[in-house]
C-alpha cells in the first residue's frame, strides 16, 4: 500500500501509517511535494511497486488526485491490477470549526485514511476497529 500525500495531508498519511503498521501491513508514505509539474517518476514507481495507491489532499474535485489519475490513465498504469483511490475534501460546505473537526467531517483524519486502506484490502473488521 502506498499513500501519496500532497501538502499538509502528508502528516495525516504518516499518522495513518502508524495505525496500520501494527496490523502487519507494509506501507509506503510519499510526499508529492508539488502538484505541477507532477513527479511522474515517483507516481510511476509507486504504481508499479504497490497493489494499492491512495492520493490524499486537502483539495477537492479537479485537484492533485485528478492530475495523478489523468497521468496514470495516459501512462497505462490503470490497465493492470492496481487499486487507486483519491481522498479529497467533499464537494459540499463544511461547517466552521477547528481544523481537526473539519478534517473529521471531511473523512481525512488518519483514522479515516487507515480505514480506507483496510476497506480496499477487504479487511472490514480492521476498518471498523480503527474507526471505533
From TrEMBL:
Organism classification: Eukaryota, Viridiplantae, Streptophyta, Embryophyta, Tracheophyta
A Pfam family assignment: Transketolase_C
Species of provenance: Davidia involucrata (Dove tree)
Keyword Membrane attached: no
Cofactor entry: Mg(2+)
One Gene Ontology MF term: metal ion binding
Residue ranges of every copy of the Transketolase C-terminal domain listed in the record: 1-113
Description of how the protein assembles with itself and partners: Homodimer.
Keywords of this entry: Isoprene biosynthesis, Magnesium, Metal-binding, Thiamine biosynthesis, Thiamine pyrophosphate, Transferase
Keyword check for rRNA-binding: no
GO cellular component, one term: chloroplast
Biological processes annotated in GO: chlorophyll biosynthetic process; terpenoid biosynthetic process; thiamine biosynthetic process
InterPro entries per record: Dxylulose-5-P_synthase, Transketo_C/PFOR_II, Transketolase_C
Protein name in UniProt: Putative 1-D-deoxyxylulose 5-phosphate synthase
Top-rank taxon, per record: Eukaryota
PANTHER family reported for this sequence: 1-D-DEOXYXYLULOSE 5-PHOSPHATE SYNTHASE-RELATED (PTHR43322), 1-DEOXY-D-XYLULOSE-5-PHOSPHATE SYNTHASE, CHLOROPLASTIC (PTHR43322:SF5)
Entry's EC annotation: 2.2.1.7
